[in-house]
Amino acid sequence: MFLSVITVAFRNHEGVVKTWRSLRNLARDPSLTFEWIVVDGGSNDGTAEFLEKLNGEFNLRYISEKDNGIYDAMNKGIAMAQGRYA
């Protein structure tokens, strides 16, 4: 199964790092492949810089730009998803 993990964030660097740590455990399951999509609302708290340093780990794709709220961000993430999302 190919799973799309979608994270929406705004000024939540700590939460994004926590999610990354959780995904390290998920990556240990050889029967599961996944992508990690992060939609950041243009934070200036280091979130984008952290994601850039990951160099695509966990098939990471992210955008960091102003959006029109959480539902707009969720829809952007869904549009980027290539697998099943939860």
Please tell me about this protein's structure.
Helix content is 37%, strand content 26%. The chain has 86 residues and is an alpha/beta fold. It has one domain: Spore Coat Polysaccharide Biosynthesis Protein SpsA, Chain A.
Mean pLDDT metric: 93
- Proportion in helices: 25-40%
User: Helix and strand string, N-terminal first?
Assistant: EHEHEHE
Cα(first) to Cα(last) distance is: 13 Å
Q: Helix count, per DSSP?
A: 3
Helix/strand class: alpha/beta
Major sheet characteristics: 4 strands, parallel
Spans with pLDDT under 50 lasting ≥5 residues?
none
Order of adjacent strands in the largest pleated sheet: 3-2-1-4
Looking at the overall shape, the CATH architecture is: Alpha-Beta Complex
Could you give me the name of the CATH homologous superfamily?
A: Spore Coat Polysaccharide Biosynthesis Protein SpsA, Chain A
Number of strands: 4
- Beta fraction: 25-35%
Number of domains: 1
Write the layout of secondary structure elements.
Blueprint: E1 2-9, H1 13-26, E2 33-40, H2 47-53, E3 61-64, H3 70-80, E4 84-85
Parallel strand pairs: 1-2, 1-4, 2-3
List keywords for this structure.
single chain; 86 residues; alpha/beta; Spore Coat Polysaccharide Biosynthesis Protein SpsA, Chain A; four-stranded parallel β-sheet; 3 helices; 4 strands; globular
